[in-house]
Structure formats: structure tokens, C-alpha cells
Specification:
Shape: globular
Bound molecules: adenosine-5'-diphosphate
Oligomer: single chain
CATH superfamily of the largest domain: ATP-grasp fold, B domain
Helix content: 25-40%
Number of helices: 16
Strand content: 25-35%
Radius of gyration: 24 Å
């Protein structure tokens, strides 16, 4: 039986796993990057080990550092959370080779489902229909044209190894085929190191419905119900709910049984999700996510199961706690992803320090967060601040409960998706359950949303204030509490709580005198122009990456590039001058 679990992750999912560990009497071990020395997941953990590094590649994706922490902590299990190493078969094997239990599916199942082409084949073997498309990599753009003419435009070019909305391009006609293919392959190569792509018919009005399954080592595979994740922007989820509005019991059961077939077809064990697109009464296999998902909480609410506890049971070799007949779904649950993004500006990333935060409570409300007041949301990691989840006996009560809970949530210092959620949850289309995956971008205008104030929290005036400081002894983290003058505590030391840091507004990127400044904190990943180039108004000048998202910074006016003040790889803060155009 596992007694000490290392969580190879950060933020809300790390804390989510640690909470169950604590309930089960299991010691939790955190790992952390240099920037996360005093992060919420580190403060929560029973023990914590330094990985070093700032970027994900240097820290949470540094295999050697994580393996060293596993050995130093003597953890007997490893939970990968989602993202980072969760769907990496080689990493899973490396953990098992150490004699440590991998709390996830067999590496072979990860491999089959990690490649979308082989996943489509596996679904077919299980008798489940995929979105109409091809089963071989595209050879050239003529394949795209032939496919579009056969099934009808638009078509989606999808990277076989893509994910997180990256590596997918929608092509509307034959003229766009070549550019679409090149762009999908380039993005896939850059993000996933492999450029293979295939084709799918692009459904114009689908809903994203997915089925949660759990499977043990005794041959039991159980489906727990569906989640509707159709409220999306940039093909990424924003609101999820269970059950899906208007999904009847016969359709739900058919989807659940199809999901079980897919899981059995790839020898699946542990928790997983079969994603499907649902349109005009038909459902199609989209892909399988071989891990716990962000939105697992809505399934937990309606089934009263703890999915992390199920994962640990399964990893221990025990049978599932439920059979299919014992799964009971009650009521309705909705989750809103509270991201550090500005919905009024096209969901632009908004890293920074949370100066003030009050979180909702009361009946039927759950707040799973990776940050507390005073914490900094770094540009180097994912932008999920927390998940607000509610349960109520029926969908409309859950919707009203979510609106009430959103009103109680205050986050100052960064922009968040909260105002977008208030608009979505109150919208008549959402209330009627009439939304599909394109609905948010095509029918909801976010531009009128007011930007939140970046009010700075007042600094305390006490002479002495207790400060909890992290210290490292041989790479292991401990906390010491010391009393320091407030001015020192809020000065140069590494861990002040309530450390106000005023931020520049993230809207304006250029002004009339031709200086183009950074709309947000981030890293320059690519310069697209050089000094002396002629540029048109609106032309992309450089690519600025923040929170795993690439953003183009464009010229406000046409002219000649006089000066470029930054170089590739450089980190900038909001308001820094990037380019001067005359
Ligand atoms: P990723 O692995 O990047 O998350 P998915 O294949 O899971 O990509 O798709 C993510 C979202 O993109 C879906 O929820 C849906 O909104 C949209 N999508 C993907 N494939 C199609 C398709 N063939 N037709 C319409 N929408 C699609």
C-alpha cells in the first residue's frame, strides 16, 4: 500500500492530489522550481524538494531532477497530475524502473492514445466511430484538397501528436490548403517535435461531450457519466458541466458503453477520459486523454466519488470501489476555469501578483486553487488560477449557484476570466443549453467587459510581522517562522505575503509616436522583422509567449522599423518598449 506519494506537478492539481493523500493518511511530497519555492502547493505539502530552474523544461519537465527528488524523498508512488509528464510513456517507464508505483495508465496505453492516428484506429477496433477523417499521415496539400472535395469544406488539419488546442488548423477551401498544412506542420514540429498531421471533417456545430472512465487491474471498466465542455475559446475549455444539457439516458448510456469499449481496446487501467464530438444526435470519438482531467471535479460532485482516491486504489492493485450498477449520478455540477487572462482583450494572458483574493463558500461550492492572496502567477506556467465548482439538484439551480459564487469571488492584481463567466452563465443561450463549441467566439461579445482595477492592497503598519520563510537543507525544503519589521518583510526577502506590485495596464501595445510596447509580461520567442524593414499597419512584428500561449505583437501603423530593443529569448515586462517604428 502506498504511504508516500510525490506529485510531479504544481498549482491546483498538485494540491488536489495532496488533499486526498492527507485524507488517506499518505505523506505528500511536492517538487518545485526556483520560482515556486514558496508556492501554494509547496506550502501545502508534507515535504518538498527543489528541482531548480525556472521554465517548465528546466524544472517540472527535468527528468533527472524529478528522479533525484523521488529517490531523496523515498516516495513509493508518483502522481503526475495533468500536463507536464502525465502523458509521457517514457517517464512512466522510468518511474516504474525505479521500483516506484506510477499512478496512471500503462505506458503502452499512453502510447496508443498519444498519437491521434493510432487512437482513431484503436477506437475503430473497439467498434466506435471517429469524426470522419483519414487514418494515414498527410503527404502533401493535394491530400487536403481531395479530402475537402470528398467530405465537404471546412476540414481540420490536425497534428497527430497535438494537444491543448495546438497543431490544429481549419481550412475553408482548396485555396487555403497549402498554407494551412504548412502552418499546422510548423506548429506541431515546434511544440511536439513531430510534424505528422491527418485530416478530419470540421464539424460546424458540435458539442464537446466526454466520458469519464475508471479501470482497475482486475478487468473492471466503469463509466461514470458525461461532461459537456462546449464552452470554449481557441478550442480550449472554459466551462464544464455534468450532466450535459438535454442528453437523454439512451444517448448517455450508448456513449458510456462506447467509451468502455475504447478503454478495453487499448488495455486501459486507471482514470481516463474519452472525448467525443456530438452533432445532430450522432457522437464521434475525438481522442482519449490518458490522465486525470482539469474538469474531473464535476464528475466527483455528481457521483460522490473521489477520483484521486480511485486512482490510488487502482495503483495499489485493489478493485474499483464501484461496479457499473452501483454508480449513482445525482443533481448537476458546473465548473468555471478561473484563468489569469483578460477576456476583454481576447483572453490575453495576464500574469502578475494577486494582491487581494476572497474566495466563495457556502452550500454546494468547491474552490480548487493553486494560488492564495499574495502569490505571483508566473508567465512561465499554465494560467489556471483556480476552479470554481458548484453542485445543485438541477441545472438551473446550479447555474444560479455559480452566479452567486462568482459574485463572492474577488481577485485583484491580475485580470481573470471571472467577468466572462458571469456573462456566459447569465446568457439565455447557455441557460437554454443551446451552446456548441463555436458559440462563445461567435455569439458572445466580450469586448464590452470592463477591465478590473489593479488596486494595490494596503501594506500593514505593525512594527513586527510574522513571516514564514522557506529554507533548503540539502535540497529538502523546510519552513521557519520569524518575526521581522514589516518594511523588511515586504522588501527584498523572497516570500512576503501581500506583496503589492502595481502593474501596467495590459491593453495598449503601441502609441502614436511609433513605440510598440509589451502588452504583458512574457518571453520573446521570435522576431519577425529586423531594423530597416518596411511594415504595414497590423503586421505581426514579433511573437511574445506567456503562459504557454503565443501572442503576436502587431504594428499599430505602417512605416519603417527603426529599432528593435529586444532579442529572442529575452524576458520582458508589461510596458517595456519592444520596437520603434518611424
Ligand atoms: P487537443 O488535443 O488540442 O485538445 P482535440 O482534438 O481534443 O484537440 O480538440 C479540441 C477541440 O477542438 C474540441 O473540443 C473541438 O471544439 C475542436 N475540434 C477538434 N476537432 C474538431 C473537428 N473535427 N470538428 C470540429 N471541431 C473540432
Amino acid at each position: 500500500m502506498l504511504s508516500k506519494i510525490l506529485i510531479a506537478n504544481r498549482g491546483e492539481i498538485a494540491i488536489r492530489v495532496m488533499r486526498t493523500c492527507r485524507e488517506l493518511g499518505i505523506t505528500s511530497v511536492a517538487v518545485y522550481s526556483e520560482l515556486d519555492r514558496d508556492a501554494a502547493h509547496v506550502r501545502y505539502a508534507d515535504e518538498a524538494y527543489a528541482l531548480g530552474g525556472k521554465t517548465a523544461a528546466e524544472s517540472y519537465l527535468n527528468t533527472d531532477a524529478i528522479l533525484a527528488a523521488v529517490k531523496a524523498s523515498r516516495a513509493d508512488g508518483l502522481h503526475p497530475g495533468y500536463g507536464f509528464y502525465a502523458e509521457n510513456a517514457d517517464f512512466a517507464r522510468a518511474i516504474s524502473d525505479l521500483g516506484v508505483t506510477w499512478i496512471g495508465p500503462p505506458p503502452e496505453a499512453i502510447e496508443i492514445m498519444g498519437d491521434k492516428i493510432s487512437a482513431r484506429r484503436a477506437a475503430g477496433r473497439g467498434g466506435v466511430v471517429s469524426v470522419p477523417g483519414t487514418l494515414d499521415p498527410i503527404e502533401n496539400f493535394n491530400d487536403v484538397i481531395a479530402f475537402g472535395e470528398k467530405v465537404g469544406w471546412p476540414v481540420a488539419i490536425k497534428a497527430a501528436y497535438g494537444g491543448g488546442g495546438k497543431g490544429m488548423k481549419v481550412v475553408h477551401d482548396a485555396a487555403g490548403a497549402q498554407a494551412g498544412l504548412e502552418s499546422a506542420e510548423r506548429e506541431a514540429q515546434a511544440y511536439f517535435g513531430r510534424s505528422e498531421a491527418y485530416l478530419e471533417k470540421y464539424l460546424t456545430n458540435p458539442r464537446h461531450i466526454e466520458i469519464q472512465i475508471i479501470a482497475d487491474n482486475h478487468g473492471n471498466v466503469v463509466w461514470l457519466g458525461e461532461r459537456d465542455c462546449s464552452v470554449q475559446r481557441r478550442h480550449q475549455k472554459l466551462v464544464e458541466e455534468s450532466p450535459g444539457a438535454g442528453i437523454d439516458e439512451a444517448t448517455r448510456t450508448a456513449m458510456g458503453e462506447a467509451a468502455v469499449q475504447v478503454a478495453r481496446g487499448c488495455g486501459y487501467v486507471n482514470a481516463g477520459t474519452i472525448e467525443m464530438l456530438y452533432e445532430n444526435g450522432e457522437f464521434y470519438f475525438l481522442e482519449m486523454n490518458t490522465r486525470l482531467q482539469v474538469e474531473h471535479c464535476v464528475t466527483e460532485y455528481v457521483t460522490s466519488l473521489d477520483l484521486v482516491a480511485e486512482q490510488i486504489r487502482i495503483a495499489n492493485g485493489e478493485p474499483l470501489s464501484v461496479t457499473q450498477e452501483l454508480v449513482v449520478r445525482r443533481g448537476h455540477s458546473i465548473e468555471c476555469r478561473i484563468n489569469a487572462e483578460n477576456p476583454a482583450k481576447g483572453f490575453l494572458p495576464s500574469p502578475g501578483t494577486i494582491n487581494r483574493m476572497t474566495v466563495p463558500a457556502g452550500p454546494g461550492v468547491r474552490w480548487d486553487a493553486g494560488y492564495e492572496e499574495g502569490d505571483a502567477v508566473s508567465q512561465y506556467y499554465d494560467n489556471l488560477v483556480g476552479k470554481l465548482v458548484v453542485w445543485a439538484p438541477d441545472r438551473d439551480s446550479a447555474r444560479h449557484r455559480m452566479l452567486r459564487a462568482l459574485k463572492e469571488l474577488t481577485i485583484d492584481g491580475i485580470h481573470t476570466t471571472k467577468p466572462a463567466h458571469e456573462l456566459i452563465l447569465a446568457h439565455p443561450d447557455f441557460a437554454a443549453g443551446k451552446h456548441s463549441t463555436r458559440w462563445l467566439e461567435e455569439h458572445v461579445d466580450m469586448s464590452a467587459l470592463e477591465s478590473i482595477s489593479n488596486a494595490v492592497a494596503p501594506v500593514g503598519t505593525e512594527d513586527l510581522a510574522p513571516q514564514v520563510l522557506p529554507v533548503e537543507v540539502d535540497g529538502r525544503r523546510f519552513e521557519v517562522k520569524i518575526w521581522m519589521p514589516e518594511v523588511v518583510a515586504n522588501g527584498s526577502s523572497g516570500t512576503p505575503k501581500k506583496n503589492p506590485r502595481p502593474r501596467a495596464a495590459t491593453s495598449a501595445v503601441g502609441n502614436s509616436n511609433g513605440t510598440i510596447s509589451a502588452p504583458m509580461q512574457g518571453t520573446i520567442v521570435r522576431l519577425l522583422v529586423k531594423a530597416g524593414d518596411k511594415v504595414d499597419s497590423g503586421q505581426a512584428l514579433l511573437v511574445l509567449e506567456a503562459m504557454k500561449m503565443e501572442n503576436h505583437v502587431n504594428a499599430e501603423h505602417g512605416g519603417t522599423v527603426k529599432e528593435i530593443r529586444v532579442s529572442e529569448g529575452e524576458t520582458v515586462t508589461a510596458g517595456d518598449t519592444l520596437v520603434v517604428i518611424e
